[in-house]
Amino acid sequence: MTRFTNKVVIVTGAGSGIGAATARRFAQEGASVVLAGRTEEKLRKVADTLPQDRALVCVTDVAQMDQVQRLVKTAVERFGALHVMVNNAGIAPGGRITEASPQDWRNVMSVDVDGVFNGCAAAIPELIKTGGSIVNVSSVSGLGGDWKMSFYNAAKGAVTNFTRALAMDYARDGIRINAVCPSLTRSELTADMFSDRALMEKFAERIPMGRGAEPEEIASVIAFLASDDARFVTGVNLPVDGGLTASNGQPPQG
């Protein structure tokens, strides 16, 4: 498929996991891709796997509005326009509220919530020009609760409802705004979990499809939501979770 030929896409958190897989997916479908993140070495490793005339690395801290504005400006100056903004960058500190710190709260909110706000606010003026779309990466944790993940749940819950509201505000401007809500997905952040056989067996009991996701499986849904195949879809927070949401996270009975 070449749904994104002559399209320009920004992917934040593109140095690993879902972000890296998403950058590769858009490039495979013909897009010019701007890879954003805080670690240049990681971004360049991913960019080196893409067509060099359609890949650009831009070191960016999404928590800083001036850096995100520079990111969007750089993308437009390099490739001429912006058609898709994927707000993927995120962190996930764990622990109960009495075990984590106020700084942990500020850190997760600055990246997971402010980062999405900054990305949307900076991209929307350019997306209005192209009739483009935004895909935010939320989580099933933004649709319900998890043990020892209250900060992350609060942040992703904010992204979930922000996506709904923003979609309503900008639909008449020709912009579609959706989110994907993955469950457990293989990445650097979850490497220890995926290597813990006993833990993964417990997760498998809760997920009807019996496993966690691969980042490419999330990337394919992001690409769908950004494409014209989803041209009448906006304001959706789409679980990509192997049936976890449908089962309410309950293990099989009997």
TrEMBL record:
PROSITE patterns attached to this UniProt entry: ADH_SHORT
Ranges where the Ketoreductase domain occurs: 7-183
Family matches, as Pfam families: adh_short_C2 (PF13561)
Alphabetized InterPro entries for the sequence: KR_dom, NAD(P)-bd_dom_sf, Sc_DH/Rdtase_CS, SDR_fam
NCBIfam families with a match to the protein in the record: PRK07231.1
Family in the record: Belongs to the short-chain dehydrogenases/reductases (SDR) family.
Name this polypeptide is given: 3-oxoacyl-ACP reductase
